[in-house]
Every structure is written in structure tokens, then in C-alpha cells.
Design brief:
Blueprint: E1 5-13, E2 16-21, E3 24-30, H1 32-42, E4 46-51, H2 54-57, H3 63-72, E5 77-80, H4 86-94, E6 99-102, H5 104-108, H6 111-120, E7 125-133, E8 139-143, E9 148-153, H7 154-164, E10 168-173, H8 185-194, E11 199-202, H9 208-216, E12 221-224, H10 226-229, H11 235-244
Helix pairs in contact: 1-3, 9-11
């Protein structure tokens, strides 16, 4: 197994880094660039920027933030939110992003997955899945920042996305997001066993042990937010704890 990546997830609303619980009740935390720069200095492997209101306004507003970030941060950057077409993707890549995470547009027209993959390579096309557990124990994919039902069962949607060309899955547990009480290992296991591409997991990581469990369930990368933003740990401390638990991470 390749080394597990530790990713900083930064949810952005307008020009502010924000954090909520279950994608609701957003709290402003400051400049996204300043937080990203701090994590870069600490040794984070990748940055994930998500414009969490973009789909509501039918556009991604992160171009300036991404452009500024790439001036002094030299690690892979994934950008998601409001990307509706190949042209939108081309624009954000031209600002310096390395990958794009697409959710709402893919649910509305799954062929965008293939178009992006053919235009820029599968490694660039990340299918973002916001999952909520249903009463029957299965998971449904949501869109518009966890607000709307898609009717798609998560595992089948992940398989379909990969078949269409997605080179990576960003799997967010809306139920766990922001609570810092552990990740949804059942969800992670179900998806990682169903696809043969890397799965980035997000939602609920409150300590290194939660990340270890996620990796044990099959995650290729763990996206952390609250525990970094609120200084519950640092990137070096998190990586050291993962190493101590036998997880191979990048130095």
C-alpha cells in the first residue's frame, strides 16, 4: 500500500475559511490562505479547497485564493464547488489547481466526469460524494453542500463514477462532519472495497486514532479540518501519531 496522505480541508465561503457541523452553522475562522500556508509549513501533503456555497450561486469563487496560494505553496491543490463544465475546470486549473472535486454537476449530468477525465486526465477528476446514512442502513449521496437528495446509493454511485473516469473519490460523511467524534468506518469500508481508485475520507476526524481507523477501513488519504483549524493537533503531531500506529505517511 502506498503512503497515506494527510490533507488539510479548507471550506470557504466568500473570502473566509469557515467551519460548521454537518455542513451547517458556519463559523468564520479567518483567511484561507493563511491557514493553508501554516499547514504547508507544517508538512501537510495536500490542500483541499471547497467553495461550499458555489453551487447555490452557480459559480466557483476561489480563483483568487487558488492563484495566491500557488505563489508560495508547492503541494497538490484540489478545488471543489460550483464547477459545472469543462470550461470551469480549465479555468480553475489555469489558476494553479492540480485536481478538481465535482459533486453537484456530476449528479445532474454524470457525463461531465468523462469529459473532465478525457480533457485533463483521470488523475485530475475527483468525484466528491457527500453521504448520509438512511434508515435502512444504506447511504445516499447528497449535493448542494449536503442539502439535497440525489436518490443515488453511495456505493453504486462511487462505482459508476470510477467507470466513467473518476481517478479518485472524495468521500464526506455528512453525519459525522464537524463533530470530531470519529469517522464513519462502515461507510469508508463499503466504498473502498467497491472501487479500485484512491479514496480520500472526510468528516469526523477528532484525533489520530480516528485517522488510523479510517486507514484500517481502506482510506488512502484523510482530510482533516476541525482538529487542525482549532489547534487540537498540528500536522507533525498527527503524522507522528499515525507512524506510531504503524501507518506509513509522507515525511
Amino acid at each position: 500500500m502506498s503512503k497515506v496522505r494527510v490533507i488539510a480541508r479548507l471550506d470557504v465561503k466568500n473570502d473566509y475559511l469557515v467551519k460548521g457541523i454537518q455542513l451547517e452553522g458556519l463559523r468564520k475562522l479567518g483567511s484561507p490562505h493563511d491557514f493553508a500556508a501554516r499547514y504547508y509549513e507544517q508538512g501537510i501533503d495536500e490542500i483541499l479547497y471547497m467553495d461550499i456555497v458555489a453551487s447555490l450561486y452557480n459559480r466557483n469563487n476561489l480563483s483568487d485564493i487558488v492563484r495566491r496560494t500557488t505563489e508560495d505553496i508547492f503541494i497538490p491543490i484540489t478545488v471543489g464547488g460550483g464547477l459545472r463544465s469543462v470550461e470551469d475546470v480549465r479555468s480553475i486549473l489555469s489558476m494553479g489547481a492540480d485536481k478538481v472535486a465535482v459533486n453537484t454537476a456530476a449528479i445532474r449530468d454524470e457525463n461531465i466526469i468523462t469529459r473532465v477525465a478525457q480533457s485533463f486526465g483521470s488523475q485530475c477528476m475527483v468525484l466528491s460524494i457527500e453521504a448520509k446514512r438512511r434508515a435502512d442502513g444504506h447511504y445516499e449521496a447528497y449535493f448542494d453542500n449536503g442539502r439535497n437528495h440525489s436518490g443515488k446509493e453511495v456505493v453504486e454511485w462511487a462505482r459508476r463514477g470510477v467507470a466513467l473516469g473518476a481517478g479518485e473519490i472524495l468521500l464526506t460523511s455528512v453525519d459525522k462532519e464537524g463533530l470530531q467524534r470519529g469517522m464513519d468506518d462502515d461507510l469508508i469500508k463499503a466504498v473502498t472495497e467497491a472501487v479500485d481508485v484512491p479514496v480520500i475520507v472526510s468528516g469526523g476526524c477528532g484525533c489520530a486514532a480516528d485517522a488510523v481507523h479510517a486507514v484500517s477501513a481502506g482510506a488512502s488519504a484523510v482530510a482533516a479540518a476541525s482538529i487542525l483549524h482549532y489547534n487540537k493537533t498540528t500536522v507533525p503531531e498527527l503524522k507522528d501519531a499515525l507512524r506510531a500506529a504503524g501507518v506509513e505517511v509522507r515525511r
